Amino acid sequence: MNTNLDHEYESWESRFERLLPLFGHRNWIVVADAAYPAQSKPGIETIFTGDDHTKVLGKVLRGIDACDHIRADVYVDAELKLVAEADAPGVTSLRNDITRQLEGKNTRELAHEQIIARLDQTSMLFRILILKTTLAIPYTSVFLELECEYWSEEAEKRLRSIEVKETSGRLPLR
């Protein structure tokens, strides 16, 4: 079920597939556990998928990988590695599944509150899609910050390092 009433009868897969071509660098997609809160910022859309966490994560990663225009930098909660099996049965297996799915991805650990603060700040200008799953294990959300696939960070740094000199309203060619 989608919490956005305009899309109440659309499946999460259909909504995700429709949004993916519209999303670009600075948009985020979050695969969230069941207790993840519905955030109130207008730029954040939350959809309850009713599906298994690793299944949703796999579909999202495959969808992004199939796009020519975007790639994802991945953030996981730093707290996840500290969650004990005794406190959250199944966490060890789930950590292994998530690690396997994120293999080869640019993945960083960050404290949960820091990631939430980044989402809050980003949502002032850019859209965020949160896909809530049925998973009841804490700190298992996976945060995907979209970047431009066809333009690297290195290319952007080179571009920004060039001193642009205005000449009659035109940029000099080098």
Description:
By secondary structure, the protein is of the alpha/beta class. The chain has one domain (5-161): RbsD-like fold (3-Layer(aba) Sandwich), CATH 3.40.1650. The chain has 5 helices and 6 strands, in the order H-E-E-H-E-H-E-H-E-E-H. It has a 6-stranded mixed sheet with strand order 2-5-1-6-3-4. Strand 3 (70-77), helix 3 (91-101) and strand 4 form a beta-alpha-beta unit. Helix 2 (53-65) packs parallel to helix 3 (91-101). The longest helix is centred in the middle third of the chain and has 13 residues, at 53-65. The protein is globular, with a radius of gyration of 18 Å. The relative contact order is 0.25. The mean pLDDT is 90.
First and last CA, distance = 54 Å
Summarize model confidence as the mean pLDDT.
Answer: 90
- What's the shape? globular
The count of β-strands is 6
Could you state the order of secondary-structure elements as H and E? Answer: HEEHEHEHEEH
Tally of distinct domains: 1
Might you state the CATH topology name? RbsD-like fold
By secondary-structure content and strand pairing, the structural class works out as: alpha/beta
CATH arch. level architecture: 3-Layer(aba) Sandwich
Number of helices: 5
Q: What can be said about the biggest beta sheet?
A: 6 strands, mixed
CATH superfamily: RbsD-like domain
Helical proportion?
Answer: 25-40%
Radius of gyration, in angstroms, nearest whole number: 18 Å
Strand order of the largest sheet: 2-5-1-6-3-4
Task: Identify the CATH class.
Answer: Alpha Beta
The proportion of residues in beta strands is 15-25%
Q: Give start-end ranges of low-pLDDT stretches.
A: none
